[in-house]
Amino acid sequence: MTTDHPALAPTSRPDGWWRSAVVYQIYPRSFQDTDGDGIGDIPGITSRLDYLAELGVDVLWLSPVYRSPQVDNGYDISDYQDVDPLFGTLADLDELIAATHARGMKLVMDLVVNHTSDQHAWFTESRDPASAKRDWYYWRPAREGHEPGTPGAEPDDSRAAFAPSAWTYDPASGEYYLGIFSPGQPDLNWENEDVRHAVHRMMRWWVDRGVDGFRMDVINLISKPAALTSGGPIPAGAGGFGAIANGPRLDEFLAEMNREVGLDAEHLITVGEMPGATVEVARRVTDPARRELNMVFTFEHVNLDQASHSKWDLADLPLPVLKANLAHWQEGLADAGWNSLYLDNHDQPRAVSRFGDDSPEHRVSSAKTLATVLHLHKGTPYVYQGEEFGMTNAPLTRIEHYQDVESLNYHTLATAGGTPEEEVLASLAAKSRDHARTPVQWDATDNAGFTTGTPWFAVNPDHTEINAEAARRDPDSVFAHFQRLIRLRHDSETVREGRFALLLPDHEQIWAFTRTLEDERLLVVANCSSRPAELPLQELGELDDAELVLGTHADRDPGRLAAWESRVLRVRTL
Ligand code: GLC
C-alpha cells in the first residue's frame, strides 16, 4: 500500500505545524457522560468542544474508544474499527471529528498495537495451533521438564506489568501466550509481516476517516529482543521494560509504518509512548531525516521519584534531579528530533499533588508554576484533562477505593509477598493511576456536572472548590494561566524554537532557564517550593530592565520569589 497523499509536503521537515501546537488529552471514560450511565462518552466530548477551543489547544488526543472488554479501560482492543457501545457509535465519532475540525482543532486517536485484547478475532483464531494466525502472537511450550499448566511451568520467570506472569496458559492447545501487560492483552508478533500489514491497513482506514494522527501506545515494545523472537525466553535483565523495549527492528518497523500509512503527510501528527527509551533512542526515532515519528513520550522524568525500577518503591525527588533530566532531553534533542512535554497523563498521579503543593494555600500557584516551567521548555506540551484548572489527587485510602488493574494487581502481589498493608496503601496513594481517572470536575454540583447517574469512579470531593466553571470565571485562575501560556506559545517564535539553557542547576528551590532566538532572550525563574526564595541576582544578571512577559503573582519583589511564584522575563542579550 502506498500513501494517497503524495502531493502533500512531509511534516518531518523541521517546520511541522505541531511544533507550535498544544495537545489536550481526553480520557473519555472520565470526561463527560451524556446518557446517564455514569461513564463518559463521545457525545459528551463533542458537548465540551467549545470549552477546549476557549482553552486554546490545537489537538485533542482521545484515549481508546474502540470496542474492548475494558480489562485495562480500553487499552485492550477487541475491534480496531469500531467504537465501544459504552462510548457511543462510529457515527458519534464522525460527528466529533467534524465538530473538532469545524473549530480549527485536530483529533488524534490512541493506537494500541503492541497487543490486542484476548477477545480480538485475531487472537481467538490464533488459539488454534493449526490456524494461519497462530504466528500472529507469541506461543511457547511449557518450560522443559514441567507439566504444562502447573505452577512454575511458564516458559520463563518474567512478570507482566499487571499480572504475576507474562505467560498465560491456554489449556486447549497446551501452550502459553505472551502478554507483557496482562493475560487480557496478548502481544502481537510484529516479526510476522501479515500483522504489520493488517495494522497499516487499519491505520489508513482511520486516516481516511478524518483523524489527524496517532498517539502510539508503548510503541517501542513492538520489536522484541532477538532472544525472544528466535524462540527463546525473555532475557532476564534490567527490570521494568528495560529487557524488552527498543528491540533491534524498532526503527525498521516505524519507518515502514510511516511509509505504508503515509504518516509524513503534512496534516498528521505522531507521538510514540516509549517506556525505557533513552534520549539517544528518541533522537534517532524523531530525527526528521529518518521519517519515523514526530516525537516520543519519555518516562525518565516520571520515574525519578522511585527508588528502584518499581514505581511503588517511593523516593524523594530533589528539584536539581528533575531539572537535570528535562535539561538532558532538551540538550539531546536540540539539533535533531523533537521533545514532547508532559507532567500529567492518565497513567500518572496528578502533577500538582506530586510535584507541586496541593494545599489550599499553594495549589493555584503551584499548578501555575509547574505549567509555566513545562510550557516554556522546547517541545510540544500535553495538557491532561483537569490539569488546566489544577485537579488534585483523590483521597484514596482503602483498597476498595481503587479500580485500576495495575493498582489492584500490585496490592494483591505485594501483600501476598509480605509487604505490610499500610506500606502498600501509601504507595498506591502516591502513585496509583486512578488519581488521574476521577471524573472531570466541571462544576460544584453533586456529581461535578460529569453525569446525572452514578459515576463509575467517585468524584473527588474537592470539586466543590476546584472545578472548571469556577476557574473560567476567575481571571487569576489556573485555567486563565494555561490560556496565557498556550497563547504565548502560539505567538512567540522564541518559545517554540529558542535554544534552551539551564541556569542554577544545583538550586534546591528555583528552576531557572533561558530560551534564546536570535536577539531575543526569555528568562524563566520559578520557585518550585512552598517557601520564598531569594533570587541569586549575581548569577542571573541584572534584571532591573527586564520586561515581564507573564507571571503568577501581582506583587513582585525584585529580589525574591514568593512561594511557587514564577516569572517569564524578556531580558537583554549581552
Ligand atoms: C500504556 C498506556 C497504559 C496501558 C498500557 C498498556 O502505557 O498508557 O494506560 O495500561 O500502555 O496498553
From TrEMBL:
InterPro entries: GH, GH13_cat_dom, Glyco_hydro_b, Malt_amylase-like_C, O16G_dom_2. Pfam families: Alpha-amylase, Malt_amylase_C. Signal peptide: none annotated. Gene3D superfamilies: Glycosidases, Golgi alpha-mannosidase II, Oligo-1,6-glucosidase, Domain 2. Residues 25-437 form the Glycosyl hydrolase family 13 catalytic domain. Transmembrane segments: none annotated. SUPFAM superfamilies: (Trans)glycosidases (SSF51445), Glycosyl hydrolase domain (SSF51011). PANTHER family: ALPHA-AMYLASE FAMILY MEMBER (PTHR10357), NEUTRAL AND BASIC AMINO ACID TRANSPORT PROTEIN RBAT (PTHR10357:SF179). Belongs to the glycosyl hydrolase 13 family. NCBIfam families: PRK10933.1 (NF008183). This is Alpha-glucosidase. The lineage of its organism: Bacteria, Bacillati, Actinomycetota, Actinomycetes, Micrococcales.
